[in-house]
Amino acid sequence: MKIKAKIQSLIIAILVVVTSNLFAQRQMEKLDRGIIAMRQGADSVYVGWRLLGTEPDEISFNLYRKTGDKEAIKLNKQPITESTNFVDVKVDFSHANSYFVKAVLHGKEEAASKPFVLPANTIAKQYLE
């Protein structure tokens, strides 16, 4: 009888441990958009950013570039829906260029991401420092 009680207690303990892990909330990191920009050649820049795991499927993005002291310009004609990257062409590297994205949900732009700044006269590299 004692063995049967011990086995039942062990089974209950195992079930409690397993089910508590199954129903536990997933730990999420506090991440931002993580935008990066890298010069690719004579006049182009690769720009990439994060799609967060908590975002809805219908999210899209507008990408902006600010060159020197000029107003920021939107680089895409339609919100970007199929990717989280973009190649900007005809970039003036004699001035600093800042890139930022704004998420678009239900036709409305959200707040701008933290910008990524490419300093003036940046050279093309295959890595970030």
Q: How would you characterize this protein structure?
A:
By secondary structure, the chain is of the alpha+beta class. 16% of the residues lie in helices and 32% in strands. It has one helix spanning 2-22, and strands at 36-39, 44-48, 60-67, 73-74, 85-89, 97-105, 108-112, 116-118. The chain is elongated.
Please describe the structure with a list of short key phrases separated by commas or semicolons.
alpha+beta, 5-stranded antiparallel β-sheet, Immunoglobulin-like, 129 residues, 1 helix, elongated
Secondary structure elements and their pairing?
Elements lengths: L1 H21 L13 E4 L4 E5 L11 E8 L5 E2 L10 E5 L7 E9 L2 E5 L3 E3 L11
Antiparallel strand pairs: 1-2, 2-5, 3-4, 3-6, 6-7, 6-8
How would you summarize what this structure contains?
With 129 residues, this protein is α+β, with helices and mostly antiparallel strands. It has one helix and eight strands; from the N terminus they run αββββββββ. The mean pLDDT is 90.
